[in-house]
UniProtKB/TrEMBL annotation:
It comes from Heyndrickxia sporothermodurans. It comes from the Bacteria. This is Transposase. One of its GO terms (biological process) is DNA transposition. Pfam families: HTH_Tnp_1. GO terms for molecular function: DNA binding; transposase activity.
């Protein structure tokens, strides 16, 4: 099977379509490529192999959404820590000999 060498412009076009649609497999099928190759091109593009990275091509990350998710995760983590502390206190009260193992 003969190897095909794709141009930089073609790779950038495929990367742009894949990041816009969010579906590497669909874009790969459209251009008769392997989905792994499309993923590799996207990774190389983000690393700057094809020149300067154009932020308009990459998907937007909303900082507000990230901060909201971060706050939710902090709350969940705090609840888990509290639950662990309560369970340890219960073990100490019922089985004082296990106190050595918890430290």
């Amino acid at each position: 099977m003969k190897r095909t060498k794709h141009s930089k412009d073609f790779k950038l076009q495929v990367v742009k379509e894949a990041t816009e649609t969010g579906n590497n497999s669909l874009v790969a099928r459209r251009y008769k490529l392997n989905p792994n190759m499309v993923s590799r091109w996207i990774r190389e593009y983000k690393d700057g192999k094809y020149g300067e990275v154009d932020v308009t091509v990459l998907p937007d990350i909303d900082s507000k959404e990230l901060s909201e998710e971060n706050e939710k995760l902090k709350i969940i983590l705090g609840e888990k820590d509290l639950e662990i502390a309560i369970l340890r206190d219960l073990i100490k009260k019922k089985n004082p000999h296990l106190l050595k193992n918890l430290k």
